[in-house]
Amino acid sequence: MQTHVIGARERQRRLISGELHEAALSLVEEHGFSETTVDDIAARAGVARRTFFNHYAVKEDAVLGMTVPQVTDEAVETFRTSAADEFTRIVRLFHTVMSTGTGPTHTYARRRALASVHPELRRRILDYVMGTERRIREVLCCADQTHSSATSEALVMLAGTVLRYTFARHPEAAGSPDQTLLDDAVARATETFRTAMEELR
Q1: Considering Cα of 23, then 25, then 28, then 29, what sign does the dihedral take?
Q2: Closest among 166, 86, 101 to 135, alpha carbons compared
Q3: Count of domains observed in the chain
């Protein structure tokens, strides 16, 4: 098995991102979202304001630990070569891409609690999901598809709904460091939606 070696610069980048995320979480928990500023977060993390923007685009992203979702060549290749049915492959691709930019599992419960009381954070999560949808649609447009663009768009949006359902029904899986637990929860949710769609026919 090939081991991915993380260089010193990347380790430092991740360390600072994590410190900014923790600072943002703590400050919002202590003082509220509106009362917390980017300057406050940078100061708590011990970095300059400009360093904050090297890691996060906006304050909401620091609180949620979110970065721009990435579509890797490996994820696209897995999508194209998997023997699973198309809908399952789209859900898996959506899950893989979305996971590249979500916050760390050990802060999931805290992020979830804050998002439940701060609409700004909920809106940012929705923006993130919609951004992921756009990236998945780009992959589908480049792949050999038999569906119309409208059908492909509907499948991508449904895949996003499957994941939201998973996180709502199985928060313990979403916040677990055990990736298998989350993968299993996503697979069960996919089957639940498939059954529901079959029953509507």
Answers
A1: negative
A2: 101
A3: 2
